[in-house]
Write a structure and sequence with these properties.
Blueprint: E1 3-7, H1 12-23, E2 27-32, E3 45-48, H2 54-60, E4 66-69, H3 77-80, H4 86-107, E5 111-117, H5 147-166, E6 169-175, E7 178-179, H6 192-202, E8 208-212, E9 218-220, E10 222-223, H7 224-236, E11 243-245, E12 250-252, H8 253-264, E13 269-273, H9 287-293, H10 301-322
Parallel strand pairs: 1-2, 1-4, 2-3, 4-5, 5-6, 6-11, 7-10, 8-13
Antiparallel strand pairs: 9-12
Helix pairs in contact: 2-4, 4-5, 6-8, 6-10, 8-10
Bound molecules: nicotinamide-adenine-dinucleotide.
Nicotinamide-adenine-dinucleotide is lined by residues 8, 10-14, 32-34, 50-52, 70-74, 92, 96, 115, 117, 175, 177-178, 184, 191.
Length: 323
């Protein structure tokens, strides 16, 4: 039986990844500073602890065939684009990556997946909302628009340095806005799919919901199950990456809000307000992943949003009942 370690197993993607690996017959150890708040944790062994601590990391990153390193200090635009959390984001995430790689070296574990981000792409290629360029090769010369993106770029290079110098088998994917049920949906770290579903679920019929910026900014979003298909394909391939894992279906944030409103079945208008928005346009470019792995996502955005809305609506209702 293959053994895997999922770092960040208490988080959104980590929790779903543990389930996927279990379904595929793996023995799985999960590690995180926190429990998965929605109980989405099927791991055989779950260890609470801080990957910024080198001694702790050496004690858990061992005796496995594969490591999936997803632990990071991250959040949506309200967390990573305001500048208020830059030192934490850079320090905390870099420490996790430095420690995990060093623990792998000490404990002779060689195969690792690292979740990088679309936020590494240069801002100047994403000024036109209708025509952003996120081709993998466009990452350099580097000019990400957030410290979160700079840390990811540094860490990509760190992983490939361990591949070069210590013979690690490294796989790096750049995720583009992954969403779905059991993700953060309130509290300031939520991303736009969850935030829009929550706003539509909470709003009273006939009122409005707030959308940050002019709403013309564009993005693409990938449903969690499809993200995991891409991760597993990459891990089973000879290809190292870095490669985009995202969708090419691009939508403006106002149209995305309209989609959430339509799914809610309510009559709501959109109120655009100033807020952190990130780059003007961003969409995954899937040429490379299709060429290397023969993979492309197939679920329409609306279908994923319906599933996500349903789950968030349940959370909102539960909170109302509890009050
Ligand atoms: P998440 O915040 O739900 O999960 C990250 C987990 O890491 C959290 O449970 C957190 O507690 C844990 N963590 C943070 N610091 C830790 C530490 N010091 N020790 C142990 N655990 C720690 O985020 P997610 O959406 O599941 O993202 C997973 C990974 O994918 C992250 O690396 C993120 O940067 C990357 N990513 C996500 C998206 C997305 O759209 N969700 C996009 C691009 C990249």
């Amino acid at each position: 039986m293959k053994k895997a370690l999922v770092c960040g197993a208490g988080g959104f993607i980590g929790g779903h990844l543990v389930n996927r690996l279990k379904q595929e017959g793996y023995w799985v150890r999960g590690v995180d500073v926190k429990e998965n708040e929605y109980g989405n944790n099927a791991s055989d062994e779950f260890i609470l602890g801080d990957l910024r601590d080198p001694a702790f990391t050496i004690s858990v990153v061992k005796d496995v065939d594969e490591v999936y390193q997803l632990a990071a200090d991250m959040g949506g635009a309200g967390y990573i684009f305001t500048g208020n959390h830059d030192a934490d984001v850079m320090h905390n995430s870099a420490m996790c990556n430095l420690n995990v790689l060093e623990a792998m070296r000490v404990n002779n574990v060689k195969k690792v997946f690292y979740s990088s981000s679309a936020c590494i792409y240069p801002e100047h290629n994403q000024l036109d909302p209708d025509n952003p360029n996120c081709e993998e090769a466009s990452a350099y010369p580097a000019a990400p628009d957030s410290e979160y993106g700079w840390e990811k770029l540094f860490s990509e290079r760190l992983y490939f340095s361990y591949a070069r110098n210590y013979g690690f088998e490294v796989k790096v994917a750049r995720f583009h806005n992954i969403f779905g049920p059991q993700g953060t949906w309130k509290g300031g770290k939520e991303k736009s799919p969850a935030a829009l579903c929550r706003k539509a679920a909470e709003a009273e019929n006939g009122t409005s919901i707030e959308v940050w910026g002019d709403g013309v900014q564009t993005r693409s979003f990938l449903y969690i199950d499809e993200c995991l298909d891409g991760v597993r394909k990459l891990m089973q391939s000879e290809f190292a990456g870095p490669v985009n894992i995202g969708s090419e279906e691009m939508i403006s944030i106002n149209d995305f809000a309209k989609m959430a409103i339509e799914i809610s079945g309510k009559k709501l208008s959109i109120h655009n307000i100033p807020g952190p928005t990130g780059v003007r346009g961003r969409r995954s470019d899937n040429k490379l992943i299709f060429e290397k792995l023969g993979w492309a996502p197939s679920m329409p955005l609306k279908q994923g949003m319906e599933k996500t809305f349903q789950w968030i609506n349940q959370q909102v209702t539960k909170e109302l009942v509890a009050k």
